[in-house]
Amino acid sequence: MSNQAHTLERRVEEVQHYYGGTLTDKEDLATNVCTVDEPPSETIKAILAQIHEDVQMRFYGCGAPFPPLLEGATVLDLGCGGGRDCFVLSSLVGEQGKVIGVDATAEQIAFAQDYVEHHREVFGYAKSNVQFLQGKIEALDKLGIAPESVDVIVSNCVINLSMTKADVLAGMAKLLKPGGEIYFADIYADRRLAPELKNDPLIVGECIGDALYFEDFVRLARAAGFLDVRITAKALKTIANPAIEAKLGGAKLYSITLRLFKMDLEDRCEDYGQVAIYKGNLPEAPDRFVLDNGHAFDTGRAVSVCRNTADMIRKSRYRTLFDVIGEGRRHYGLFQCGAQQIEFTPALADAGVCGPSGCGC
User: I need a labelling partner for 58 at 20 to 30 A (CA). Which of 36, 231, 316, 319 fits?
Assistant: First the structure.
């Protein structure tokens, strides 16, 4: 075994020990890094009320990676731990959907498996739609999941634990269907952390030691083919442990939720004269749809968009939520992204842009 392979194997064993032995529930955490800052939506709050209390106590996530429009979807959860997010997703995808949870720690998988039948009964399903697999997120091709068979991949404060994040991204790209989405929360730093932090099992287990400088993650994502990384939520983390905080040398940590799409996008926002109009037909968002921190669409309002944004909403499962005007054949230079709003006027209607009631109004 090479030195690199030995180091990777040792790291996996340390993480498995931390999450399978050291931590028995979230009260054992040494910091506040693996805690959720963003409040759940009313939909998620209602589902969480149905999740078994023991499962909720084994939850160590830092976000709420539950994108909309999951009914009937196949969703893969990387680093599923005790299964909390998988059981939430089980409700969101419905009985005809499918949820696959993957974790490297045998104790976590065994724990989650014990609650499959409980949640099947809670949700009133004839057959459970949740499957748990033990395996490494760096080796997704070893799990027997068919390539391009997954609609959405989620993860909650886990990818930072991997020493080979490029392998994780490459594996996700292979499993996603064209137009599929990665929607995940993780911990990032505002600078490159001291290398010696990677050798402290406690700091690594607390999702700090291997946390990437955010710009370095963007570079990895682009190398894997995800050229346009979108932020949907960002929160500064408090460490709540002076000894560990002192080792960070002033670095700040953030929990950031990102969405990436598997499609042919450009590495810059380019202007092709396109306009998007949100129909308001997502039940949980009747007035406004938020694609990311820079792109919000009020119902019935025409919004100029770059071609990447146009493709994200017209070539993904969100296509049913929007009217996109413009074929994107003529280029007008760089686009200043930020969801510039356009008031709908009769002049826009004359130009072929649809209003709140559709074209021709």
Answer: 231
What residue spans define the domains of the chain?
3-261, 274-350
User: Rounded to the nearest 10 degrees, how much is the dihedral formed by the CA atoms of 118, 77, 143, 4?
Assistant: -130
How many Cβ atoms are within 10 Å of 92's Cβ, its own excluded? 21
Please state the length of the chain: 361
Q: Contact at 8 Å (CB) between 185 and 231?
A: no
Topology (CATH) of 274-350? Ribosomal Protein L9; domain 1 (3.40.5)
Go through 78-90 and write b for each residue having 16 or more CB atoms within 10 A of its CB, e for each that does not.
bbbbbbbbbbbbb
| Domains 3-261 and 274-350 fall in the same CATH topology | no
Q: Could you read off the pLDDT of 243-279 as tens digits, one per residue?
A: 888 888 999 999 999 999 999 999 999 999 999 999 9
Radius of gyration of the chain, Cα coordinates, nearest whole angstrom? 21
What CATH architecture applies to the domain 3-261? 3-Layer(aba) Sandwich (3.40)
pTM: 0.86
Residue 56 one-letter amino acid = Q
Q: Please tell me whether residue 19 adopts helix, strand or coil conformation.
A: helix
- What are the distances in angstroms from CA 148 to CA 18, 42, 129, 204? 33, 32, 19, 32
Q: Taken in order 78, 256, 85, 91, is the CA torsion positive or negative?
A: negative
